[in-house]
Amino acid sequence: MNENKHYIQWKDLYLLLSLFLLGCLPVCLQAQTEDRLSPRMLKGLTLEELMNVEVTSVTKSPEKLSEAASAIQVLTGDDIRRSGALRLPEALRLAPNLQVAQTNAHDWAITARGFNGAPLLSNTLSNKLLVMTDGRSVYTPLFGGVFWDVQNVVLEDVDRIEVVSGPGGTLWGANAVNGVINVITKSARETQGLYATVAAGTLLQDQAALRYGFQFDSTLFCRVYGQRFDQHSTQHLDGADAQDAWGMSQGGFRMDYMPSQRSTLTLQGDLYDGKENNYPRAGVNGQNILGRWTRRFSPQSELIVQAYYDRTWRDLPLQEFRQTLQTYDLDLEYHFPLGKRQQIVCGLGYRLMDDAVRNSDRVTFNPDRRILELFNEFVQDQIELLAGRLMLTIGTKLLHNDYSGLEWQPSARLAWTPTETQTIWTAVSRAVRTPARLDADAITPNIMTRNREFDSEKVVAYELGYRIRPLEQVSLSIAAFYHDYDDLRSINVNPHPPTPFLFANDQEAQSWGLEISGNFFARPWWRLRGGFTFLDNQFSAKSPAVSPISVIFESIDPHNQALLQSIMDLPGNFQLDVVGRYVDLLPATPSLTIPAYLTLDIRLAWIFKAFRFSIVGQNLGEEAHREFGSRQIPRSLYLKTAFHF
Length: 645
Description:
Layout: H1 2-33, H2 47-51, E1 54-55, E2 63-64, E3 71-76, H3 77-83, H4 88-92, E4 99-102, E5 108-111, E6 129-133, E7 136-137, E8 158-165, H5 169-172, E9 179-185, E10 193-201, E11 204-217, E12 220-231, E13 246-260, E14 263-276, E15 282-298, E16 301-316, E17 321-338, E18 342-358, E19 364-365, E20 369-385, E21 390-401, E22 405-419, E23 422-433, H6 437-440, E24 442-443, E25 447-448, E26 457-471, E27 474-493, E28 501-523, E29 526-541, H7 549-554, E30 560-570, E31 574-583, E32 597-608, E33 611-618, E34 624-626, E35 632-634, E36 636-644
Parallel strand pairs: 6-9, 25-28
Antiparallel strand pairs: 1-2, 3-8, 4-5, 6-7, 8-9, 10-11, 10-36, 11-12, 12-13, 13-14, 14-15, 15-16, 16-17, 17-18, 18-20, 19-24, 20-21, 21-22, 22-23, 23-26, 26-27, 27-28, 28-29, 29-30, 30-31, 31-32, 32-33, 33-36, 34-35
């Protein structure tokens, strides 16, 4: 039955895409016969510019996207704006190498290459993805993942989002096991003037944002912003109101000071406060401030010093649980050439996390407050071979944490560019997921830790990729991978009550898959982008004490995913944009199994001078569907007005 069901879903997907392309055919034919439309160019980057975008998430040094030895996707600011996304998790749906699923009105399950763990009331247990915003890690040591409800930026200010699938521990450290998300916002210099937007709709109750950029002189640029949104509830399986509505206010600033061509100083910060139903009325708030100084000694040599402070607070009245986390982080990074063919990147880092919780009868952390220290140092050597056609990148990171001690994370990457339009790359990497407080300190009525002996989870990853531009209008990227995991978290039967289960490291797994993505400039005014991913895995127990539920606790992932984004500029300053997504069955227990679904987001916009008016429909497939957990995500519609002067 499952195979037939999958076949029907793929048949529906094929039919839908065929109808969409046929519907666009008259527009294409008209464009070919009307010379007045031929000069129109799709706003945003050309294909050559897209392939030559400089990315930094693979080697921490600027390199062309087309030559990067990694399965990396870049979401440009134009891709995000044209998708109709309202928040950062929605924007991440555009990365075909990510699994992104909404669990309720305010929470999300996001991962790369699998391991989206079982859903909890306030989040999921996904813990193998490192996420950064302008260099600030948003990791929480409570469970080793990300609280996505409080990750908000003004999407208009996003320059690009770099999404790397595969280990990045050599440069980025613990938890960069299956991927890295690096959100990079525009500088204050690039966001001058006034920007304002207002939106309202069915699922989105209201949203407003105001940003103003100004300069003091030719060396000092600033911007300040504020935003507010309120969102209605999702639905229970019977269609009833899930009562998980929420809202949040956020503000912040950024300053960029460039006293000379060699030096740049950036200072930025944010603060937020929100309320979330379903607990009832959980509270979240936080503040952060980041400073970064860059000193360039030559085009190949620079020193970067970065420090930030981040405070987050979360109160769950129903669970009688509260967390306050304060993070202090300092990083030094030095780039310099070694001879004519080698480029060295090395660095040191220190992070202190002061994590305090208010325990309850439902969950207890012992101790209730921990001061966690993280020390790291790394070195990477990029070696140019064969007159620049072959690049070898080798490096390692040494990391010391308070739970498992010293860890090492080496990698080797090789990229060959036989022509200017082709890159073949391969990589072997080792990465670790260091223990979180949930693994080592937590005690609940049903499960506890094993005398704080929880070790790091480990992976050795093998990757092979090919990136090509076969035609002037087409670019393709394909990556195959095989991951070998050891010491994965398991739920073991506890031979020593009172709790029936305990956390241990008695699982291992192998996963393999394929990631395909591409861009196609069908016409000067029409671009298609998208991708397909296949993932499979196999878990095995290293001890007879391992419970069968361990696999579901660690990994609820679809085998197949597909994405297609169509971006069109039409006559009369209109824009028509469509995003179609197909997600395969999520196998789990009967209550957690999610049927395959197909959904569409459609955006129609009209630009008049400094104004942009748009109407967006989201989740326009089934009337309502589940994506992760028990809540149904309904169809929605919103209207939005934006002004930029």
